[in-house]
User: Fold this.
Amino acid sequence: MKSLGSIRRAFAPWNDPGAKPYIHFDRVTKKFGDFTAVNDLSLAIYEREFFALLGASGCGKSTLLRMLAGFEEPTSGRIMLDGQDLAGIPPYRRPVNMMFQSYALFPHMSVEKNIAFGLKQEGMPKADVEKRVTEMLKLVKLEPFAKRKPHQLSGGQRQRVALARSVAKRPKVLLLDEPLGALDKKLREETQFELMDLQQELGLTFVVVTHDQEEAMTMADRIAIMDKGQVMQVATPAEVYEAPASRFVAGFVGNVNMFEGKVAERSGNSARITGGTGAEITVENAGEAVKDTEVSFAIRPEKIRISSKRPADAINALQGEVYDIAYLGDMTVYHVRLDDGQMVRAATMNATRVADDPLTWDDRAWISFRPDAGVVLTR
Amino acid sequence: MNSTGTWSRFNITAVTLGFAFLYLPIVLLVVFSFNASKLVTVWGGFSTKWYVSLFHNQGLMDAAWVTIRVGLISATAATVLGTLGALALTRYTRFRGRMLFSGMIFAPLVMPDVITGLSLLLLFVAVGFDRGFYTVTLAHITFTMCFVAVVVQSRLVTFDRSLEEAAMDLGAPPVKTFFQITLPVIAPAIVSGWMLAFTLSLDDLVVASFTSGPGATTLPMKIYSQVRLGVTPEINAACTILIALVATGVLIASVANKRREVQRLRDEQAAQRG
Assistant:
């Protein structure tokens, strides 16, 4: 297998102003009666991209996928695929295939018949169908199970049949609705990497819907965070995590500590933020924060250091008391109640097996962080 | 079995009485069909002569043939119509008056046969149909299709619609999707609907009496009219054959069902183990 690293590292068509979007949602709205599932949404997805739609249930991500598949028509707006307007094209004439959350395997057909179903619909000659089915069975490592019925397979095997069936027709775009939702944790992690390899191998565009942020972060080139029928941010996993665009995104992806405060001073790119009870934070990347406005300072737990004494070089240091400790093996998460009452999480990697000076419950402790460790959010 | 897992005297008595109540009449009928005596209530030794004479009774054999033909035709037509009705009621959930229609499909289930029969008779007279084979068949289609609709509807409610979406997504137009995916998956419900309709048609007396005409006497009608002239052992024999047929059918169906279930369970367990 060729190395994915070099391909993935170089792949960033969204930064190229000349690149044409492969899938383009153009101001799409979808209403079900009074309920607006998708609200005036625009989104561009590029060819060969592994794109994730991430959001809580009811945020409109599945509706978006179903509109792309043709099961729902937009109330207003256009959906373009490879330069073609998809309006009015029924699902059975669209060059996209979908892998369903329930897998939707045909219970009365064997594994090979399931995989062959789509190929037969397009009138492919019998010999070619057989060849393609064999190829697909090999791809998902299910050759010995060709003659079995879906109920004779385990959950993981069914998932692979569903996958083989949906890529057998070599669609322009593969849509995956919670593809790993029904698998247990260990199998899910293995399958994530299999899906990524498969996407590279086949050179397809993948659009995956998920509510599992770890899954989206692992697999996707870019993630769209959705809420209430709108896209809150579209960015690479690292950008979404390290540079969230809003309080919602910061809170939705991963754990975060939020400090509310007012911008007391601004100079150049840095700022001083004062909290309600007098705690002060200095930041170097203040962004759009304007003096005398209310802002949030968001910082991830693993970027906060915890110590029993105030570090000599610390610019930002706040004192408090250890309220709770969660030992997770690879890391320990401390919940610290600051003297102004705010709870803060600080995560420490357990790089050694035994700590010299372990902090314990009710100990006085300092938390400290660098001025560039968090982001200032105005929205 | 009660909670302590033993058979108490009370339980044994209750079960014996209950089953006696249900089966004693039928057992008597079967026993007396092998009676050598011509008197129905006096045992005169074992004989199968009534079975032989039954097959020479042209009237009864004709009636049996009519009943089977009516049953086959009406059950098949009722299955097609009932399935279509069930599809309409479960799939198009937003049309006006849906509640009314789904109520109306259940109503004939509890409608007294006398009323169904009489109203159909009035209809056939009003439109000037000559009563006979076709009117009985039509009447049976009318009252059995509701049963089919109910059976098929209960299956469709649990039908996973994403199967149809998957088929369309893979390129199958709606009609093809229906015949290749929907129909095979709900087939067991359709088959049991057909069997229910056939059985109902087979043992219907009331509706048939109202809607039948000369030359189209069904077996239940024939038996009933002969019994009014006095029960003959021949009738007992005919009834025993009917019971044997129905019992065999039910037995085969339930054994096959049980086998399928056990096999499925075994397959699933094997699949989980890897």
Q: What stands out?
A: Chain A has two domains: 4-248, 255-373. The interface with chain B takes residues 69-71, 90-93, 96-98, 100-102, 104, 106-108, 117-118, 121-122, 149, 151-154, 157, 165-166, 169 of chain A (CB under 8 Å).
